[in-house]
Amino acid sequence: MSGPPRSRAVVVDRPGAYRLVERDVPGPGPGEVLVRVAAAGICMSDREVYDGHRDAAYVRYPVIPGHEWAGTVEAVGEGVDPALVGRKTVAEGFRACGVCERCRCGETSLCAGGYAETGFTEPGAFADHVGVPARLLHPLPDDADLRAAALLEPAAVVAAAVRAGRPRPGQRVAVVGAGTLGLLAVQLLGACSPAELTVVDPRAARGERALLLGATAAVDPAGAEGLGGRFDLVVETAGAPTTAASSCLLARRGGRVVLTGMFGPGAAGIDPVHLSLSQLEVRSVFGAPSSAWSDAVRAFGLGLLDPAPLITHEFPLERFADAVALVGGGDPGTGKVLLRP
Questions:
Q1: Position 72 in a domain
Q2: Does any domain span residue 289?
Q3: In a domain, 313, yes or no
Q4: For the chain, what is the total number of helices (H) and then of strands (E)?
Q5: In the chain, at which end, N or C, are there fewer CB atoms within 10 A of the end residue's CB?
Q6: What percent of the chain has pLDDT over 90?
Q7: pLDDT tens digits for 274-305?
Q8: Cα–Cα distance between 165 and 175 in angstroms, integer?
Q9: Helices (H), the chain
Q10: Are residues 321 and 255 in the same domain?
Q11: CA–CA separation, 215 vs 190, rounded Å?
Q12: Which pLDDT belongs to residue 264?
């Protein structure tokens, strides 16, 4: 006689130590759904969890990582519409409380109820199954490519940056960094009909990929120095030590700068004299509110956003160590790395 169905998961017990465990398939609790994971992306935040470099306030060991994912609803808990079973879906990572002042204003990524996020403090999607509150779901079209949809989490971050940057047709726009966030930004900003869409990245291969995805020009940081004060909107995605400061120098007087990169201690600060004299508007983005998720999912469904070309490597759960080693390894040929349970 066969036993109950089993489900595998990658568990990071502490920095540098992980196990591939097999467990009973977890059942969804009240208000939750159980999703069969089709694909999960690995980003630098996951590498930081594995290496132990993530701020202690934003991770809870032991943890099943995986906050970029897509899958199919397999079961629903009490109080959840059973019609969701069989639906392709993604879900927001932040477990916003929904009742604090910031949540009630629609700013769910600023929830004051305490930090909780799938893959960091709650079990994530480097597993056969992931359980999430049904209220966080964003169902996808029946014909959605779940492999590509795994990148809708970083796409939602970019959508939040686009909302903050308010691009208008005919404006000059720059994207600093041509990694996953930068290349997704090229697609979403390109849909806003800019007069120019320039990408700044030191890696020529990344710049060439940006041109294929809709950028009108690609330059390295040295070439960008001659473009200072040119752009109406600059979206920074690299999180490198100097890119916050250099992005502000690219913006015209009265322009807008949106920072999405995750900066480490010691990053160069923004010159307050330049900031005040240029009357710049500077915003930062950490995660994405529900509204930005809706924007990203809508753009994906309409074909305005296609993350599939960004995927370069796919691994089974058993090769988690090989997969995570590629992320942040410096190989310009490495784009988005997926785990495929």
A1: yes
A2: no
A3: yes
A4: 11, 15
A5: N
A6: 94
A7: 999 999 999 999 999 999 999 999 999 999 99
A8: 12
A9: 44-51, 101-104, 146-149, 152-165, 180-190, 204-212, 221-224, 243-250, 272-278, 290-302, 320-326
A10: no
A11: 7
A12: 84
- Is residue 30 located within the same domain as residue 132? yes
User: DSSP letters of 31-87?
Assistant: TEEEEEEEEEEE-HHHHHHHHT-S-GGG--SSB----EEEEEEEEE-TTS-GGGTT-
| 218 three-state secondary structure | strand
Q: 172 with 232: CB under 8 angstroms?
A: yes
45 and 126 share one domain? yes
**Residue 255 DSSP class:** E
Length of the chain: 341
CATH code (residue 235): 3.40.50.720
Q: How many domains does the chain have?
A: 2
Kindly state whether residues 208 and 329 are assigned to the same domain.
Answer: no
Residues 116, 247, single domain; the answer is no
Mark whether 165 and 277 lie in a shared domain: yes
- Cβ–Cβ < 8 Å for 258, 280: no
Helix or strand run (H / E) with residue 6: strand 6-14
pLDDT surpasses 60 at 1: no
Domain with 208 in it: 156-284
Residue 340 token pair:
């495929």
Same domain membership, residue 259 and residue 223: yes
Residue 253 token pair: 């007087």
The per-residue pLDDT for range 228-258, each reduced to its tens digit, is 999 999 999 999 999 999 999 999 999 999 9
